[in-house]
């Protein structure tokens, strides 16, 4: 089973992110977007879920996979390579950095905040950029 988890890493906002400060994605109960679901999961459970947990939960929610089938579905989901949170719309469009702690658990860090700058300046924290939306 592959993993999308990082440890001790900050996924910084993409270079071509269109916002100057973090924005909360709009949430539509009828058809929530990937961004809205990821935001809700991570913001409601900071440093409790791993990247793998978030990605699978969003997938399972959008596919309406019942609880009793999620274990097998998770195994099948990670049997194939999955894009990590560097490709998340949170870092590409909405201005959220994603910090992975020493246990691979994630939390959102808003662009422009003191926390974001402290993590970005910390030599002990590995720095990655969210993927660009457009080619350079």
Question: First CA to last CA: what distance?
Answer: 33 Å
The whole-angstrom Rg is 15 Å
Strand arrangement in the largest pleated sheet:
3-2-1-4
Class based on secondary structure composition and strand pairing: alpha+beta
What best-fitting shape do the alpha-carbon axes yield? globular
Please state the average pLDDT score. Answer: 95
Order of helices and strands: EHHHHEEHE
Low-confidence stretches: none
Number of strand elements: 4
Number of helices: 5
Measured by DSSP, the beta-strand proportion falls in: 5-15%
Q: Mind describing the biggest β-sheet?
A: 4 strands, mixed
Structure overview:
This protein has 136 residues and is α+β, with helices and mostly antiparallel strands. The chain is built from 5 helices and 4 strands; from the N terminus they run βααααββαβ. It has helices at residues 34-44, 51-62, 70-79, 89-92, 114-121; strands at 9-12, 96-100, 106-110, 126-129. The chain has a 4-stranded mixed sheet with strand order 3-2-1-4. β2 and β3 form a beta hairpin. α1 (34-44) crosses α2 (51-62). The protein is globular and about 45 Å long. The N and C termini lie far apart (33 Å). The mean pLDDT is 95.
């Amino acid at each position: 089973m592959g993993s999308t988890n990082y440890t001790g890493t900050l996924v910084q906002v993409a270079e071509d992110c269109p916002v100057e400060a973090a924005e909360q994605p709009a949430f539509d109960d009828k058809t929530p977007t990937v961004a809205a679901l990821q935001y809700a999961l991570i913001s409601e459970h900071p440093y409790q879920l791993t990247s793998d947990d978030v990605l699978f939960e969003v997938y399972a929610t959008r596919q309406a996979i019942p609880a009793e089938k999620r274990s097998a579905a998770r195994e099948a989901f990670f049997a194939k390579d999955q894009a990590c949170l560097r490709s998340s719309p949170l870092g590409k469009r909405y201005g959220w950095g994603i910090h992975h702690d020493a246990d691979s658990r994630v939390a959102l860090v808003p662009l422009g905040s003191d926390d974001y700058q402290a993590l970005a300046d910390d030599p002990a924290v590995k720095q990655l950029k969210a993927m660009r939306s457009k080619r350079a």
